[in-house]
Amino acid sequence: MVDGADGRRRNPPAEGGFEMTEAVSIPSWRSALVTSSEDNIWIQGYDIASLMRRSSFVDTLFLLHRGRLPEPHESKLLDAILVASADHGSGAPSCATARLAASGNRQSLSAAIAAGILAIGDEHGGAGSLCMEMIGRAAALASRDSITIEESAVREVERAKAEKRRLPGLGHRVHTKDPRVEVLFAMARSGGGSLEGVRFMESLEAAAAQAVKPLPMNIDGALAAVLYDLGFPSSAGKLIFIVGRVAGLTAEVAEEYAREKPMRIRIPVSYDGVPPREME
Known about the structure:
By secondary structure, the chain is mostly helical. The protein is 54% helix and 6% strand. It has helices at residues 48-54, 57-66, 72-85, 93-104, 109-118, 127-145, 149-163, 179-190, 196-211, 219-229, 236-259; strands at residues 2-3, 9-11, 20-22, 34-36, 41-43, 46-47. Helix 3 runs antiparallel to helix 10. The longest helix has 24 residues, at 236-259.
């Protein structure tokens, strides 16, 4: 027997005969997120019509990731994070990559958007996950050693300095003070709670300024603190940023299509390899 591309198992046909097939049982996937029937769709148990009438996209995003609908202040915070992550100009790595792909390939909008997403990593837009892991470690240390979260932040800076490694969530190549951080943290405080993540990141910024040099908190650090306090897992530090940035990428690609000619991007390259030479 041989397996066909359609998932059915085939007996090689005899000369001049017909091909025989039998269905192959494929194990079903498991998901607790969404299910559907012939006439409805349910997201985490809520039918789609009710969500469309009574909730927002942000509420649904929260529902998908947390399994419940958000409180009003939680919804506003997540919405603010998405706005803060949407775009940072065409020169940002994700936006520039999307535009470069759109310049060279006018047959696929989705390829350009995907290219922009692929540029997101620990150095650009994705450090929020590392930052949330750091906050989690600091919170565990504070609990274990009976110290404050602020003291735990000082220890984290000391370790990073000794190990000569960067602190995620701090530093920005453009801003000396990121305007998005203050807004997010003020909104977080208005909702109450212990704000362990916010307090840690503020203490980390202050400790780094004393022990190393002033390093302004960036959007990765701010969204990590807020998402940690909202109860999201560390992976959300990257995933939620991607959701927000896709909004900007769609606009960047649309503008590239509308305003620029194909293949207009030519990156200056200075060659410093071997000079021309003859084959021996």
